[in-house]
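Researcher: Please generate the 3D structure of the following complex. Treat every line as part of one assembly.
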Amino acid sequence: MAKNYISRSWIFVHNELRADFRHLQSLAAQTMFVVVSTYLIYSGLDLLGQTVLSNRVFNLIFWLIMIFTVVNVTASSFIRDAKGMDLYYYTLINPSVYFAGKLLSSFLSVLLLSFLLTLLFSQVFSLNYMLSVHWWTTTLLGALGMTGLFTLIAGMASRTGQNQILIVVLGFPLAIPLLLFLMKNLWSIDMAYSQDFSIMSLSTLLVFDGLILGLGFLLFPYIWGD
Amino acid sequence: MALATPLSSGITVDVIEWSSDTLITIKGHNTKFDDERSSLNIWAHCPEGYFPISDYYIHGNDSLTIPLNRVIYRDSTDNVVYLDLVIHSESMDLVKSPKALPTSGAHLCGENDYCSGMDEREKVSSYSRGRKGFIFPNLRILEETIRNLMFHVTMWFGMVGLLLFGFIYAIKYILGNKLEHDIWASLSNAVGLGFGVLGLLTGMAWAKYTWGAFWVNDPKLNGAGLGVLMYLAYFLLRNSIENPRKRARISAAYNIIAFVLFIMFIFVLPRLQGVDSLHPGQGGNPAFSKYDLDNVLRAVFYPAVIGWTFIGFWIFDILRRMYLLNNKN
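Model: Done. Output below.
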């Protein structure tokens, strides 16, 4: 029985991942969003005559684009399951597994997009520090936190009538401290000497991620069962 | 009472130096140097005792100057020593400005000198006995704005109590599914949010006088603002769902997230290692040691906290009864 349960859950997660990539148009739309945003920033700076901004400003711009990307990805992953589908899934699998499946597939998409955005930023604006371990770990943790948060919020909002604006309204106040933590961690990433980058410095991010994921797994089954 | 009670007297001391002369200017707050000229006493306090200074010039009720070369004191280390300046007059309590008088000189205390043999320790201690009634202590920089303690801080305490109540009822709804628990939670959150907004406004008024700006980029302030935003989003969420049961479920879940994160923003974040906050009480313990509350102030402050909490719950109760009356069917 347990083995059956585990295999069913794994099959669902597998399906989610494949569904995500089957609907490639949404992924393509996100990619286009990322590329166009980068180009927008580049041409905007070019227009102003100064392509050289402080690195911290670039960090901020990167993460703002990431927030919008995460919002879009998580929203589309819930919209994909039309009215009938979520009932169907509800009868089939544990809501926690459903949450985990959505989270995982969104997280993978977000990771890919963050990879793309990092490459673009580092090449277009010549930011070499974006190809470092410090950057990648922070981005990974930040993306995990953002995705977890917005998956939970999107799950909540998809139960109501007007989900687009609600995801933003509910989610942004909760995402702001995560953004602040990220900025703090990336504060001196471009300095010549390696700052205090260790597990301790990532501790706030880890704790926040743990809090978000914990709350998510606790509350999502309650929201979903209707 | 918080608005009408006077502040105790306080002084600010400035030292002006030019060539070989030094002048000490004293600016007072709630002082009556001129009116109480006859009962005005000024002492320099050094380890040997309290030595009176009689060469001073009064320029008004708030203003006093002392030429420095009248105060001579040298300790065994031959360095410049800063003595405490103690002032008393009839309506003032004993006012002390620690380490305000720089002195240096060739005369040792006790040798044919200005400050020899006139230790007035007993006289000073007789003046420092107790204070009549309740007055606010006069603290550096804060001065009159200490009155905000009775409004802003007490309101936030009441607010946290109300939001905690809402949180508990959200959990009760999740466990029990009784619709009225959810209604009570939302009403309690509404009153808590109202207190929060008022708390922000009083805090901004205080900040304008103390820091010079209505808002500063500070972790505690940002956390408080974000908390208010989150609860506003909670009400938006409630308004967007029609079905009462569904509304109750979703808003209970969001209430839990919002409360947990709110407590984290207000209490945990500003205390983290390496996070500096301008807000009073951070960097110290939450018992406002920075305000240096004395016992008289505490005797009013703690009941005020309880009072504001009760007012909040009273408003909540009125709203609850209004709701029951409106929906009697």
